[in-house]
Write a structure and sequence with these properties.
alpha+beta; OB fold (Dihydrolipoamide Acetyltransferase, E2P); five-stranded mixed beta barrel; three-stranded antiparallel β-sheet; 8 strands; elongated
Length: 249
């Protein structure tokens, strides 16, 4: 039976001279891998080969576990052309698709994650978008959605409240322990990174954020948060994200 879903293309692989294997994040069916036969032909129903970040309505079959579906039709509903005119915005969008594709398994619906990616890509396309703040909010929300965010307000060992008053060099983060560590507890932990005062205040700001335009952080704060959350995601996934080198500063 054919299904119709809102979808964002998060991975493309050439299958043959004329066909592709496409990985979509759909709103109602989660992540699906689909064979797009003849998609690279100019007169295909998709209008030619699909690119990463392509977003629209797909019609496809969803096969039994372990096999690929077949793409029947793709109709673009959202153009992300503005992202392709600036490397920084494009790389950030590609980092987001890689991030979400690694955190979520196939076949489970995650409408909130779909909406998060959809809104983040839309915001990145705005000329006035604070790119690093959009990324910080995306990483924070996605890790929280996946249940991997950890404790970011108190020390996970002694429960002391962590805030900017601790100062630089006095706060750590450990992915293995699951959150922030005060200076005393951090000294007894092997796996940890030191985090800046800017990262601490940035995390506090994210806790108060509401809506996709609700983040108001300085460049230093967003940079500190992005470094921390990318480090945490890398540890949880067991491998670095390929696009991190182009995005995380």
């Amino acid at each position: 039976m054919a299904l119709s879903e809102q979808a964002i293309c998060i991975r493309t692989t050439d299958y043959s001279e004329t066909s592709q294997v496409l990985r979509f994040l759909t709103r109602g069916a989660g992540i699906v891998s689909i064979l797009a036969k003849g998609s690279k032909r100019p007169k295909s129903k998709s209008g030619g080969a699909l690119d990463l970040l392509s977003e629209g309505q797909i019609v496809f079959t969803q096969p039994a576990s372990g096999a690929m579906g077949t793409l029947f039709e793709f109709t673009e509903t959202v153009s992300h052309l503005p992202l392709r005119t600036e490397a920084r915005r494009l790389n950030t969008g590609l980092y987001m698709t890689e991030f979400i594709g690694l955190l979520l398994g196939e076949g489970d619906a995650h409408p909130d994650a779909f909406d998060l990616l959809h809104n983040a890509l839309g915001r990145l396309a705005d000329a006035d978008a604070p790119v690093e703040a959009v990324l910080a909010y995306f990483q924070w929300r996605m890790l929280r959605h996946a249940g991997l965010l950890g404790q970011l307000s108190n020390c996970v060992e002694c429960d002391v409240s962590i805030n900017a008053e601790h100062g630089a060099g006095a706060v750590f983060f450990s992915s293995a322990r699951g959150g922030l560590l005060c200076g005393s507890c951090g000294c007894t932990t092997d796996e940890k990174i030191n985090i800046s005062t800017d990262a601490i205040t940035g995390l506090a700001g994210l806790q108060l954020a509401r809506g996709r335009r609700g983040v108001s952080l300085s460049e230093a704060q967003t940079r500190g948060v992005n470094r921390l959350l990318s480090y945490h995601a890398t540890y949880q996934l067991g491998k670095p994200l390929r696009m991190a080198r182009y995005v995380i500063r």
